[in-house]
Design goal:
Layout lengths: L8 E2 L2 E3 L6 E3 L4 E5 L2 E5 L2 H8 L1 H30 L4 H6 L12 H16 L1 H12 L5 H21 L15 H34 L4 E6 L2 E6 L8 E3 L3
Antiparallel strand pairs: 1-2, 2-3, 4-5, 6-7, 6-8
Helix pairs in contact: 1-2, 2-4, 2-7, 4-6, 4-7, 5-6, 6-7
């Protein structure tokens, strides 16, 4: 969610004011506001532009899901180091085929999956839009990196024999994927809150702008629209 800044146009392309992606004017979605035309790479960016409050609420939900998952992972990891989860560590040595639902890796996957695909849903949407526009952005890189970590970890847990890696070097990276998504999403959410507050302050200042002005023309005081005041005109200001 970004505030209504004008699209930066260059030839046949324009910059999406939400995600910053360059899009083709002829095929992009567009919205007119205040006499300006804004172009968007997807319906999602267009909805965010037109209904920023709804997008902020949706992002807040994803942040809560992601941070909750990371918090539980941190507590579990701390419990392991403190020796409070010795039973879970012992069960993690049991072969996956014999007792898959009690292994440490499976528990990690259960906790991380909502973070990966619910908390990180916005990154996947942004990545898909980037692919369609043939333009790589940050969402694409985050979705690619965390997906590789997640699915590699799934392979380590369920299909360890298919990996060309020594047994003692097989490690899962569920936590890495979850932490990246959670903290990048949290950063974006905080950024949007700050932008919203800053934009609200700017709008309040703009609201103070008078709609009309009193000027002296032909030795007479006249009330004219503020936009029509010309350079070097005498303006009447009253307390």
């Amino acid at each position: 969610m970004r505030e209504a800044t004008a699209s930066i146009t260059a030839g046949d392309k324009a910059k999406d004011p939400i995600c910053g992606m360059m899009v083709e004017k002829s095929t992009a979605l567009k919205t007119e506001r205040g006499g300006r035309t804004y172009y968007f790479c997807s319906a999602g960016c267009q909805r965010t532009f037109e209904s920023p409050e709804q997008e902020l609420k949706s992002m807040r939900t994803r942040v809560m899901i992601a941070m909750s998952g990371v918090l539980v992972l941190a507590i579990m990891r701390a419990a392991v180091f403190l020796g409070l989860a010795g039973g879970a560590m012992t069960l993690s040595w049991v072969p996956v085929d014999a007792l898959p639902w009690f292994t440490w890796g499976v528990w990690m996957m259960i906790l991380v999956t909502p973070v990966q695909f619910i908390g990180g849903w916005g990154f996947y949407k942004g990545a898909w839009n980037a692919i369609r526009a043939r333009n790589i952005n940050m969402d694409f890189l985050i979705a690619l990196g965390t997906s590789v970590a997640y699915f590699y970890s799934v392979a380590v847990v369920f299909f360890p024999n298919v990996l060309p890696v020594a047994v003692d070097q097989r490690q899962s990276y569920f936590e890495v994927s979850a932490v990246i998504i959670a903290f990048v999403l949290l950063g974006k959410y905080m950024e949007e809150i700050i932008k919203k507050r800053s934009s609200a302050a700017v709008r309040k200042l703009l609201d103070l702008k008078p709609a009309t002005a009193h000027v002296i023309r032909d030795e007479q005081e006249m009330e004219v629209p503020a936009e029509s005041v010309m350079l070097d005109e005498i303006i009447v200001v009253r307390p």
